Amino acid sequence: MGWLAELAGVHSGFPFGRYEYTAVLAPSLFGVPLAIGCAWLILFGYVWRMLAWLRLRRALVPWAGAAWMALFDLQIEPLAAGPLNYWVWLGDGVYYGAPAANFAGWFGVSWILFFALARKTPSARPDAPWLGLSVVLFFGLIALANGAAGAVLAGLALCLLHGWAVLRRRGRRFVLGSH
Known about the structure:
- This protein is mostly helical.
- It has six helices and four strands; from the N terminus they run αβββααβααα.
- It has one domain (2-169).
- The protein is 61% helix and 6% strand.
- It starts with a helix and ends in a 10-residue tail after the last helix.
């Protein structure tokens, strides 16, 4: 679904705004790099597993998952559309060139994905957190090296969320919602 949303975005501007991919992430299909589908799967899978550790009420899962994914985009966006040159925005934006619609789009697409799976209980595999945390650290280091303060702050917030989920898994109480 993430790749399909990107396909719609590239060709219509909805739901993320007007942008186009560069050749950096080739190969592409219909203007969308195949790697983008993989990126959505990695990020979604990581957040889905971490939500299991948070033990939120099912009604909160789509909201928390969508917010977590949008926070990921706040970290990745300044780098992917900047020094990494993965895509180019076709207009002015509010955050490192990205329009506000981009973040609303990330939230909306992610909300739909998490809502579709909210009735299922994600397994809290012990290896899942390290994959997602490595993505956060990867982009965090690039952000630090490029002076992208917004991306660094988003990365720190993602690390705090990760730490909170780890503490919840270990039975420590810091609850936003009940079962």
